[in-house]
Amino acid sequence: MLRKLLIGTALASSFVFSAHAEDVKEVQMLHWWTSGGEAAALNVLKEDLSKEGFAWKDVPVAGGGGDAAMTALKAMVAAGNYPTASQMLGYTVLDYAAAGVMGDLTETAKKEGWDKSVPAALQKFSVYDGKWVAAPVNVHSVNWLWINKAVMDKIGGTEPKTFDDFVALLDKAKAGGVIPLALGGQNWQEATMFDSVVLSTGGPEFYKKAFNDLDEESLKSDTMKKSFDNLAKLVTYVDPNFSGRDWNLATAMVIKGDALVQVMGDWAKGEFNAAKKTPGTDFLCYRFPGTDGSVIYNSDMFGMFNVPDDRKAAQVALATATLSKSFQSAFNVVKGSVPARTDVPDTDFDACGKKGIADLKAANEGGTLFGSLAQGYGAPPAVANAYKDVVSKFVHGQIKTSDEAVTELVKAIDDAK
Amino acid sequence: MSTVAETKIKLTPEHNARPSASVRSRLQDALPKIVLAPSFAATVIFVYGFILWTIYLSFTNSKTFPSYAITGPRAYQRLWRWTFESDPPSSWYTSITNMGIFGFLYIFICLALGLFLAILLDQKIRGEGVLRPIYLYPMALSFIVTGVAWKWFLDPGLGLEQTLHQWGWTSFHFDWIKNKDFVIYTVVIAGVWQASGFIMAMFLAGLRGIDGEIMKAAQIDGATTFQLYRRIVIPLLRPVFLSAFIVLAHLAIKSYDLVVALTSGGPGGSAWLPSNFMYEFTFKRNEMAVGSASAVIMLMTITAIIVPYLYSELRERPR
Fold first, then answer.
1. What's the whole-model pTM score?
2. Which of A124, A170, B18, B153 has its CA 20 to 30 A from that of B32?
């Protein structure tokens, strides 16, 4: 009985196998840039590659978002069926590199001079064990304020330079009858805002020690308590209905003038652009008060997999095109981020983009370019998510005091390490 | 004994005389097994094989990728410690208490409401053919659709509260979906809305199967309507209760998409169920061992509830 079953199974499964024909002139790409502007930006890359004779093939991902794509990637890699490249974030690249499935682009990197043009902080994620394993596509920075200019004029506000200025500005907005702070109460948005609060409260050195080096003394210091108190202060300025709101809806509140300001990464600019708003006249972009001169970043990378030799040429072409100055400029103008190399001319960028490029360059040279913990560039995902848990529980009241928050933060990060 | 002997005698000459027929008959015997084999193998590998694999992984220190070196029950120790961290609540504590609240209320309310609706519909009312599918249709929606629709409806800025404010009832206040202590009850509301119509249909089928003679006999004996249902109808519906319970229990335990679509995890993760915990830890936090351990605990919990119930129900009615 059992033997018959086994034979039957073998018969049936033999139908499943079929031959795989490998196309050399093809780039297989796993990504989740499928919506409007992002897809258009990626089209530039597709065209660049097709000029060189390489076909583009999207690896389909069911369900869209980044989580689904990462699950799909895990399955593909486990099956030994590597894509040419995949959109990846932060520590994911290093995890895959440690598992030994990433390719080696060092030769191309040398030829193209990536070592010099890509900021050193980014190379932490694109270079593993001395080998280039990923091509950074862009740099997003997180410590931005996005302000509706009409509302700002109405309440007579000026650019806040310190945290206290910022609180005073929010008070003015409250008195003026608008929602002062647009926030989406999802854990990553709260934590993204808290990144900026910590940098503002403790300064660059403190941010680095606490959120990049995970130094326990800093994590449980009084400065961290003060940061949580400042966060609690900011949360008093949100509308009662903020919990669970998506980030782009919060941005829309600022665009429509229902709210004065949102603290969000520069992907928010894409929403303003889509609504046909101009920086300087319709909206204002300032660094989060007290963080001028520093940049908290995250970055999209194209991780390059260890594909068979006959597919390497396509991979090199993709990597070269990705880090070419023309693509870096064209893509990032649309995406709202800034180029991942510091030698790209800023002529095509708007005022906010120009400021972003200058800030990135300065921060890179001054050593004040830090990975965002909330966005997974400060520590591995387990730690980053434990951090988001604590911040979110503090915002929503499961954690009641800043003392408790600091204790929980140390405990959660310890647990996740 | 004689039958067996006869069969043997009858079979043997045939077997000798026509070997080709024997091949065919053997093939005929084997055919159902061959056809069943792929699905059998698929079930063995993809259900039971992966259960074993998950149990194995929960004893390793797998992070992003599975690792195969056994490192002991560290994942279980962490879960055990988290089980008692109630202030501030650990994610695991939140998940299992939510499972208790959601599981109990969802199953209980669905059964009660389903039975109630079925009894009302069974009163030979006009328009039953229209009413029945109206109640049944929510079941045809996916949890995602249910979740998104209820998310909008319950959102104080968009749905019910906003509408009532516009109609002039400005003191009306209903913000459970934004409240960390009540958000799990909104998941119950949406879940009950979706499933109670289906449970009603099951009970309705059960009610139609009850012999009318028994009811008439009871009425002649002077039973009131309440007594009739309490003493006769509901006890007769016991097999339906069993089926409905099993359907609801597995829906409750595998609820994941409803929480995600309705609450995106709730304020500060306060709407998590164990399935959300499992997915979050395995795929987002790269703590595969902890995720696997939580999956194993879910499986053991289901087993602990379902097996005794099935055993007691099925043993009492030998057929």
1. 0.83
2. B18
Determine the distance in angstroms separating the CA of A382 from the nearest CA of chain B, rounded to an integer.
Answer: 4
ipTM score assigned to the predicted complex? 0.79
Chain A residues touching B40 at Cβ < 8 A: 5, 9
Mean pLDDT of A192-211: 95
Choose among A9, A242, A398: nearest Cβ to B88.
Answer: A398
On the question of pLDDT at A21 being above 50, the answer is: no
B285 — contact with chain A (CB < 8 Å)? yes
Which uninterrupted H or E stretch holds A390? helix A381-396
Say whether residue A214 is in contact with chain B using an 8 A CB cutoff. Answer: no
Neighbours of A365 (CB within 10 A): 12
CA A199 to centroid of chain Cα atoms: 17
The confidence score (pLDDT) of residue A18 equals 38
- With an 8 Å Cβ cutoff, are A95 and B37 in contact? no
CB contacts, 8 Å: A389 with chain B: 91, 268-269
- Rg (C-alpha) for chain A, rounded Å, is 23
Distance CA A409, CA A216 (A): 10
Q: Supply A197's token pair.
A: 């609060």
State whether A71 and B283 contact (CB < 8 Å).
yes
Note whether B78 contacts A: Cβ–Cβ < 8 A: yes
What are the tens digits of pLDDT across the range B126-165? 888 888 888 888 888 888 999 999 999 998 888 888 889 8
Give A114 to chain B, closest Cα distance, Å. 29
Contacts of B77 in chain A (CB under 8 A): none
Examine the pLDDT at B1 and tell me if it is beyond 60. no
Question: A339-386 pLDDT, tens per residue?
Answer: 999 899 998 999 999 999 999 999 999 999 999 999 989 998 889 999
Give the residue-averaged pLDDT of B193-203.
93
Domains defined for chain A, CATH in brackets: 25-140+298-366 (3.40.190.10), 142-297+372-416 (3.40.190.10)
CA angle at B44 for the pair B43 and B46, rounded to the nearest 5°:
60
Per-position b or e across B150-175, b if 16+ CB within 10 A of its CB: bbebbbbeebebeeeeeeeeeeeeeb
Q: What region, left, alpha or beta, does residue A402 occupy, with left being phi > 0 and alpha being psi -120 to 50 degrees?
A: alpha
> Are B65 and A78 in contact (CB < 8 Å)?
yes
* Burial annotation B257-274 (CB, 10 A radius, 16+ → b, else e): bbbbbbbbbbbbbbbbbb
Q: B178 and chain A: CB distance < 8 Å anywhere?
A: yes
Structure tokens of B316?
Answer: 């009492």
Locus of tokens 């309490």: B230
Structural domains of chain B ordered from first start:
2-48 (no CATH), 82-316 (1.10.3720.10)
Q: Which of residues 321-350 of A touch B (CB under 8 A)?
A: none
Tokens representing residue B21 in the block: 């027929």
Mean pLDDT, rounded, for B219-242:
88
The residues with which B101 forms a beta bridge, in sequence order, are none
Does B65 contact A4 at a Cβ distance shorter than 8 Å? no
Is B12 a residue whose pLDDT tops 60?
no
